[in-house]
Write a structure and sequence with these properties.
By secondary structure, the protein is α+β, with helices and mostly antiparallel strands. It contains 18 helices and 27 strands. Helices cover 29% and strands 27% of the residues. A hairpin with a 3-residue loop joins strand 13 and strand 14.
């Protein structure tokens, strides 16, 4: 009993607040020099002699080490008389301040991460910071504002001295005058979860069900893009509305930064070069980071001219449409459904959750399912494009060495960190199989969506589930036999039963299948093709040599696109045309477009990760497919 009472006493002692009032920050965005911004924390009242002031090692949603403290310069602490106090940096992210009972003010400068030469643990652009004086400021707040250890739950007030031409768009509560903008956050968790984009106004507003949505854009070149982006996202947002029925947030913001890469785009239109590849490698973290009520995007604009070949999808609209549904759907997981490891996130010594299968895997799965159920993509494209790629990548996961939950818990460390991208690949496939198993066990009365929404309502943004007990709670919403599925494929180390589960909805999956593929006329010993980097990456090639006595189609110097030619061998449904069918293709000869013809012939080949969709279904398969497709 004595030991128990001493433990309670110790807990109470360490629970006493060391900070007597709210955090009061000020930031100067007008007097910026050497690409650094000045930050001040004032009116401090500390009750102990030494205190630790921290910046995050990492933040929720990134699953990687950032070390934001590396970007802090000239950190100083002052007493009430303006005298300097002793400060010692501990590690990458912590400043120890002595004589803290007299502490009144802290000031420091922040380097932006986008322009930094830091190479180790370089911060992904959507999680980082950027300042361009008078033009834009990107605030991912973990990179700017610190906190006293143990005082993450105190409210924050932030006063920004800003150019009159810029407005800070965020979901944080704000008050604005011409040259100042005030922000408030209930605690450090909310502050980190709400990025701010300072830029000249370029916004669009609309409604998705009960949620007010704002798009805010900064572009490095002239032009307004918010309305154009809304037009492109409208179909996706309508698909989300159809899928969920009601959203758990009242407002949401898309914050988008467009980097000007039109010069590189022009190079790519003309073909890949070594210099273009080098520039592509330096583009940084193109993509997005989700937050509870917003998402931040770093995208590249390469011009409106179409870029042929596999690099064509680098267009910012294509990337945005690919990831916007995923990021938006994070309002369900982890915003409204998360464990205490996220709800009470430890920024200095992070403890990672084992449930990435839920936060990222299911979210990525839903992003594809939403488009399928809305008719944006076909069943054929869903499996033989979207899911085929994910299954192929999932097959590389070392499932016999580490379970998915084991990888999640240790994702900041090697060798687990190398497998993080599997949350979007294997994780999505796991979501599909889990959905089909839930439908089977409930005889079509419940789906994965139903379970996630039910549990999300039970917990919500401010309540965390038990990290260790959650899978059992999830199983209890469905059927006791679902535990076996988790034991084998989520917490266990067995291979995914893709073919077994997909057979329930009339699909046949094979890792490798023998097929007939087109025998192209340029695949001949009489032809020598351009085999440069440009040709291999884009498919755009030319004829280097022709043995005229063996070939009647090509001449030396002819230019054509191999991918376009192969596509002509298939009909609009993706089926190979009949052998002997006449194929009419186009090439450039001496700068002039001409038509050539050849009869289609076959050769033996193999397809990996092949899906065959049955057209005739049993009654049971018809029901299962209808449930899965939301019909």
């Amino acid at each position: 009993m004595l030991k128990h009472l001493l433990s309670i006493w110790a807990f109470c002692v360490f629970s006493i607040s060391i900070l007597a009032q709210d955090y009061n920050y000020s930031v100067d965005l007008v007097n910026v020099s050497n690409d650094k911004i000045a930050v001040e924390l004032k009116n401090i009242n500390i009750s102990q002699d030494e205190v630790l002031f921290n910046f995050p090692k990492t933040i929720p949603g990134t699953y990687a080490t950032q070390n934001y403290g590396v970007y802090i310069d000239n950190f100083k602490a002052f007493d009430r008389e303006g005298r300097s106090l002793k400060v010692k940096k501990s590690g990458e992210n912590t400043f120890a301040i002595s004589g803290a009972t007299e502490l009144s003010r802290i000031q420091y400068y922040v380097n932006d991460s986008w322009d930094s030469k830091v190479k180790k643990n370089k911060i992904f652009e959507p999680a980082g910071t950027n300042w361009e004086k008078g033009e834009n400021f990107v605030f991912n707040n973990a990179g700017i504002f610190g906190y006293f250890q143990g005082e993450e739950l105190k409210p924050f007030k932030i006063e920004i001295n800003k150019p009159a031409s810029l407005y800070g768009l965020s979901v944080l509560a704000t008050e604005v005058t011409e040259n100042k903008q005030m922000f408030k956050a209930k605690d450090y968790h909310q502050l980190v979860d709400c990025p701010i984009l300072f830029a000249a106004a370029d916004t669009a507003q609309f409604k998705v069900l009960n949620t007010s949505v704002t798009i805010g854009v900064y572009s490095e070149f002239e032009g307004k893009f918010a309305s154009k982006i809304y037009d492109e996202l409208k179909e996706s947002m309508q698909a989300i509305a159809q899928f969920v029925g009601k959203l758990p947030v009242e407002n949401y913001s898309f914050l988008i930064y467009l980097s000007d890469q039109t010069e590189l785009g022009a190079q790519l239109v003309d073909g890949i070069s070594i210099s273009a590849i080098a520039k592509l490698a330096k583009l940084g973290g193109v993509g997005a980071l989700e937050h509870g009520n917003s998402s931040f995007y770093y995208l590249v604009y390469m011009g409106d001219e179409e870029i042929s070949g596999p690099l064509g999808d680098i267009n910012y609209i294509d990337i945005l449409k690919d990831v916007a549904i995923h990021e938006f759907m994070h309002i369900f997981t982890p915003l409204n459904l998360h464990s205490e490891h996220i709800g009470n996130f430890n920024y200095t010594e992070p403890v990672m959750s084992k449930h990435l299968w839920l936060y990222e895997g299911i979210t990525e799965y839903f992003a594809g399912l939403i488009q399928l159920q809305a008719g944006i993509i076909s069943l054929e494209d869903y499996f033989n494009k979207t899911m085929k790629e994910k299954v192929a990548m999932a097959s590389r996961y070392p499932y016999e060495e580490m379970s998915f939950t084991e990888m999640s818990e240790n994702v900041l460390e090697k060798p687990y960190s190398k497998q993080y991208m599997q949350v979007y690949q294997r994780g999505a496939v796991m979501g599909l199989l889990l959905d089909l198993e839930i439908a089977r066990l409930t005889n079509g009365q419940k789906t994965l969506k139903d379970v996630v929404i039910t549990l999300g309502k039970r917990y919500g943004a401010d309540k965390s589930f038990d990290e260790e007990a959650f899978i059992k709670e999830f199983v209890a919403e469905v059927h006791p036999d679902l535990q076996l599925h988790f034991d084998k494929y989520v917490t266990g180390k067995e291979d995914l039963p893709i073919n077994e589960y997909l057979a329930r909805i009339g699909l046949d999956y094979n890792k490798v299948v023998d097929v007939k593929i087109p025998q192209m006329p340029y695949e001949s010993e009489s032809i020598k093709l351009d085999n440069s980097i440009n040709a291999r990456l884009t498919g755009q090639t030319s004829i280097k040599k022709v043995m005229k006595d063996l070939d009647s189609i090509f001449q030396k110097g002819d230019k054509f696109n191999m991918q376009d030619w192969k596509a002509l061998c298939y009909n609009e449904n993706g089926a190979l045309r009949s052998e002997g069918a006449n194929i009419e293709a186009e090439l450039l000869r001496n700068g002039e477009a001409i038509k050539v013809n050849f009869p289609l012939s076959y050769k033996d080949g193999k397809k990996k990760h092949h899906f065959e969709i049955a057209e005739e279904l049993t009654e049971e398969q018809q029901k299962a497919r209808a449930v899965w497709m939301g019909k």
